[in-house]
Design brief:
With 489 residues, this protein is of the alpha/beta class. It is built from 20 helices and eight strands. The strands form two sheets. A six-stranded mixed β-sheet has the order 5-4-3-6-8-7, covered by helices on one side. Helix 2 packs across helix 19 and helix 10 packs antiparallel against helix 11. The termini are far apart.
Length: 489
């Protein structure tokens, strides 16, 4: 039995890795990813300095810095880093499977064959659901800190639950370290620690054990001390967020953002109908699991309470503060959602087995459709085509395109003042953005212009006097074009 279980572990992890690498090979580095890479190429001191002007703390960028010095700056090599974080998340979900099954009091007698060895059917279903989580797949190939954030939050959940069961100096130290890493990875990590504190309070009330709270005092104290150097920076970042936040919130329409718990694809608009069906089915099963979980007095209850508090906190914060209810932001809770989804399926099977079987099969089919959609393409704009133009300089006045351009092309210039671009784009923070004041400063005999939809009026009038376009513009997708110009003879 142990051999067959380990074999399944490696088979599923290998399949996940190969699929993620396959997707990564065809995915262009987009704006936020390019920002991460360009920032990570600076010195450690400069990374921390630039991060103080950005929206996020520096931990992921620092890890990426040491990673790219080891493996190089190619997109495929760099994306192995988020893949490793995602594999760690999946491995941790595998490891908590006994806690989930014990919470549900499952005796799994039905078995299936894996390489001529029998393993329990429900155990296999759990592993498949975890490995085929489209949200984890999506962020496994993105050069942003979300895969690390997802892993740390799940790790915090597991460690915090263990602390509710047994007080240990080592456990307190590791949990405090995890809490510190969370806060230095993303500002959502700070929000999570508040949510975690509220969750522990609720669990202590439900279980009538007020002593649980005291076990977490040293954890929060140690984590708070470690965060003091960044506290002033965080308050400044919060002010920047309020001044330049780009998200909007609608009390009803924004409920659709909770679909990020189940599936996500920001590169295709509009999404195909099966994304919505998958999200609705997954959220319904997760809700069934949540109802079951909060009635327990074990790991499932802890997961369920944290899940519930997070869902309410994101909605409430979006009403009274910044609109953080956004698919990308709520996605860090996807591992918790998959645990509750499995719980919901088991609960449904105990009452309505036929509906449960159909629901499970439909869910898996929909997940496979999403995975196939990922395979068909996850890039709106194929910036990698810029590598082919490496011998000729490129100019652009599009702030959202200059960082991918600079990543793929060493001679990419921004036309204008980067400091006048929206703060959330990132060009104002990076010192490596090379620029000229206006299109009149372009003196090359031949060059490319990168633009969206059509040339800006300033560019068109300035270039028309001295240059002519040659051939047709090259479409990179998402209304982004590359046009070559040559000086008039």
């Amino acid at each position: 039995m142990k051999y067959s279980r380990v074999l399944m572990y490696y088979l599923l992890l290998a399949s996940f890795s190969l699929f993620s690498i396959h997707l990564s090979a065809g995915k262009a580095v987009w704006r936020d990813e390019a920002f991460s890479v360009l920032l990570s190429q600076l010195s450690v001191v400069d990374i921390i300095s630039v991060s103080t002007q950005d929206f996020s703390p520096p931990l992921f960028y620092l890890i990426l810095h040491f990673w790219h010095t080891t493996v190089g700056t190619g997109a495929l090599e760099l994306r192995v880093l988020p893949l490793l974080f995602s594999l760690a998340t999946i491995g941790l979900l595998y490891s908590v499977r006994p806690l989930v099954f014990t919470s549900l009091s499952l005796s799994d007698n039905r078995k299936i064959l894996v390489f001529d060895r029998k393993i329990p059917l429900l155990e296999s279903l759990y592993y498949i659901l975890v490995t085929c989580n489209s949200v984890i797949v999506y962020f496994s190939l993105e050069l942003r800190g979300y895969s690390l954030l997802m892993f740390l939050i799940l790790l915090w959940t597991v460690l915090a639950y263990c602390l509710t069961k047994k007080r240990s100096a080592l456990l307190i130290s590791v949990l405090a370290l995890t809490s510190s890493a969370l806060m230095y990875t993303h500002n959502l990590g700070l929000i999570w620690l508040v949510i975690g504190g509220v969750g522990v309070l609720i669990v202590s009330i439900l279980n009538k054990n007020k002593l649980l709270l005291w076990r977490f005092v040293p954890v929060y104290l140690l984590a708070g001390i470690s965060y003091l150097p960044w506290l002033g920076v965080m308050l400044s970042q919060a002010q920047n967020v309020q001044q330049s936040f780009w998200l909007v919130f609608h009390p009803l329409h924004s409920l659709a953002e909770y679909s990020g718990l189940i599936t996500i694809n920001e590169q295709v608009e509009p999404l195909k109908p099966f994304y919505g069906v998958l999200a609705i089915l997954g959220l319904w099963l997760s809700l069934l699991g949540l109802v079951k979980a909060v009635k327990q007095t074990n790991f499932l209850q802890f997961v369920g309470v944290l899940f519930f508090v997070t869902v309410i906190a994101f909605y409430g914060t979006s009403i009274f503060g910044n609109p953080i209810l956004y698919k990308r932001y709520i996605s860090f809770l996807s591992p918790h959602a998959i645990i509750l989804l499995f719980t919901g399926l088991v609960t449904l099977y105990q009452r309505l087995p036929r509906i449960a079987v159909v629901s499970g099969l439909v869910f898996i089919v929909l997940v496979l459709l999403v995975m196939n959609d990922y395979r068909l393409g996850l890039s709106k704009t194929h910036y990698q085509e810029l590598q082919r133009m490496s011998s000729v300089e490129i100019f652009t006045d599009e702030a959202v395109d200059v960082m991918p351009c600079l990543y793929y092309h060493p001679k990419c210039w921004f036309v204008g003042n980067p400091k006048n671009t929206p703060h959330y784009i990132g060009t104002t923070q990076l010192p490596t953005i090379v620029s000229i004041t206006s299109w009149a400063d372009v003196k090359q005999s031949t060059f490319f212009v990168l633009y969206r939809k059509q040339l800006s009026q300033e560019a068109a009038s300035a270039l028309a006097a001295q240059y002519v376009p040659i051939k047709n513009a090259i479409s990179l997708g998402d209304d982004v074009y590359l046009q070559r110009y040559i000086g008039k003879i």
